[in-house]
Specification:
Elements lengths: L1 H33 L5 H15 L8 H16 L4 H7 L3 H24 L5 H8 L4 H10 L4 H26 L16 H19 L6 H15 L9 H16 L4 H4 L6 H26 L3 H8 L4 H11 L3 H29 L1 H4 L8
Helix pairs in contact: 1-2, 1-11, 2-11, 3-10, 3-11, 3-15, 5-6, 5-13, 5-16, 6-7, 6-8, 7-8, 8-13, 9-10, 13-14, 14-16, 15-16
């Protein structure tokens, strides 16, 4: 009886904590919107919940809310992949390939810095420096002897700096475009929206058994993009739903900044922050050159190749009208390439240079 009461009490406390987080995130988004901040409904909840968590405030973002946020962003982005856009993207394959190569160069460079000056063991440094999905890099790093909490913490700091820094930099530099790309459907048709939700959720649940990364963003993106490419897009998303998705993503990123998790990298925090800024600058320089070769706006290619997340960078492109399909295609291709190749490349490095990349058994405990 006592155990059942304790369980009910714990469940009630969890619900109160989630409700508190939603209220804080919503208020933060409203304040940042009033201040005319870029991406207010994403950056506001992210910064405020991160600050509150580091101050010791009990906040929580359950996994289903993050999945819902990812679904909204994936579906909204997929509607931009019209037949014309799909045809034009086929001609960008070589640029996407070069962007993947650049991502690997940044990964090796960041990993080397974390190993050389951060004092991290090889596996932790390599996977923490990988420009890819934070969750997937943390899981694969742990499988190869890396420290999960350290890898996740480094990725959290990197994503925070990129997600907040780039939109504000674009706003300060007044970088925006007159995007020729528009969504394939602009009206909300509720039967079609329900069909989009049902089909993409079913696909996500089916693919989840194979541990596909970012599946709750990739499944609706695939379904919406396919329907848009076939010129049968079922519905646009209501504005309030897009705002809710950004809030869920922002708060889910913010609650990662727990005092205990950040304590793992407190010593190397300046190094991680400085290295991330250097990564952004190097990626921006390479993207500018690539944009010149491809005949695309540099501002678009900088977002497309930046070491941030798919949803955050694509949302920035959507708000600033800077080539949503191009940014999304580049980011998705890089994410898939990194997830598929990061472990084989690390094992190759260990085999070729064991003294430099193999994690000693004494460090695995």
């Amino acid at each position: 009886m006592q155990s059942a009461l304790e369980t009910i009490g714990a469940t009630r406390r969890e619900r109160v904590t989630v409700l508190r987080t939603l209220v804080v995130a919503l208020a933060a988004g409203a304040v940042f919107a009033a201040l005319n901040s870029p991406l207010p409904w994403l950056i506001g909840p992210l910064l405020v919940t991160a600050g509150a968590r580091l101050a010791g405030v009990s906040l929580s973002s359950p996994h289903p809310l993050r999945c819902a946020g990812q679904w909204v962003i994936g579906a909204a982005l997929g509607l931009y992949f019209t037949p014309t856009v799909m045809a034009s993207l086929l001609g960008l394959w070589w640029g996407i390939g070069l962007a993947v190569v650049m991502a690997w160069a940044l990964t090796l460079g960041f990993g080397w810095v974390l190993r050389r000056w951060g004092g991290l063991d090889p596996a932790t440094a390599f996977f923490a420096g990988a420009v890819g999905s934070a969750t997937e890099m943390s899981i694969q790093g742990e499988r190869h002897g890396g420290r999960f909490e350290l890898i996740a913490a480094v990725h959290s700091v990197r994503v925070l700096i990129v997600v907040v820094g780039l939109p504000y930099a674009y706003k300060w530099l007044q970088l925006h475009g007159s995007d020729p790309y528009t969504a394939s459907r602009l009206d909300v048709f509720w039967p079609g929206l329900l069909a989009l939700i049902a089909s993409s959720v079913a696909l996500a649940i089916w693919l989840e058994r194979w541990s596909v990364p970012n599946i709750w963003m990739m499944a609706p993106l695939a379904v919406a993009a396919t329907s848009s490419a076939l010129d049968v897009a079922p519905s646009a998303l209501p504005p309030w739903m897009v705002i809710a998705g950004q809030i869920f993503i922002g708060m889910s990123l913010g609650v990662r900044f727990r005092p205990e998790s950040m304590a793992h990298i407190r010593r190397i925090m300046p190094l991680v922050a400085l290295s991330t800024v250097v990564l952004i600058v190097i990626a921006a320089g390479a993207a500018t050159l690539l944009a010149w070769l491809m005949g695309l706006p540099p501002a678009t290619l900088i977002l497309a190749t930046s070491p941030g997340g798919i949803g955050e960078m694509s949302l920035t492109a959507k708000v600033l009208q800077l080539g949503v399909p191009v940014v999304t295609a580049f980011q998705v291709a890089r994410m898939i390439a990194m997830v598929l190749t990061v472990a084989p490349i690390y094992r190759t490095l260990v085999r070729l240079w064991p003294a430099r990349w193999a994690t000693p058994l004494s460090e695995l405990g």
